[in-house]
Amino acid sequence: MSETVHIAGMLIHTRLDAIDSAMHAVRHSRNTEVHLTGVPGKFIAVIECAHERELARIIEEMQSHPGVISVSMTSHYIEDMVALAAEMPE
Predict the structure, then answer these.
(1) Using one digit for the tens of pLDDT, what is the confidence trace for 54-74?
(2) Which SS3 state, helix, strand or coil, does residue 17 take?
(3) What does the pLDDT look like over 15-50, one tens digit per residue?
């Protein structure tokens, strides 16, 4: 059985005064990226992890973070690690 990687995108909506703290909390997790949306109080988090339970843990942590209004998973892909690491043909 081959190993898989979970890649998820989440839209996180915060109070305006809490966005920096929430972005810092996401960045504290391993294998994450944070992207501003251009909408005040909203940002995107992209997370890569080995198990769905890690995604659930991050969602729960963010939902309980002070100033976070909502966390919505916008995408979730499961990829084979070997195929993901292979070079793409040009």
Answers:
(1) 999 999 999 999 999 999 999
(2) helix
(3) 999 999 999 999 988 889 999 999 999 999 999 999
In the sheet that 32-36 helps form, which strands lie side by side, from edge to edge?
A: 32-36, 42-49, 4-14, 68-80
Q: Which residue has the tokens 């294998």?
A: 31
Phi, psi of 86 (to 5 degrees): -70, 145
Residue 86 is given by DSSP the state: S
Q: Which amino acid is at 19?
A: I
Rounded to an integer, what is the distance from CA 89 to the centroid of its chain?
Answer: 28
At 64 the pLDDT is 96
pTM of the model: 0.86
51 DSSP 8-state letter: -
Catalogue all structural domains in the chain, each as residue range(s) with its CATH number.
4-85 (3.30.70.920)
Three-state DSSP class for 18? helix
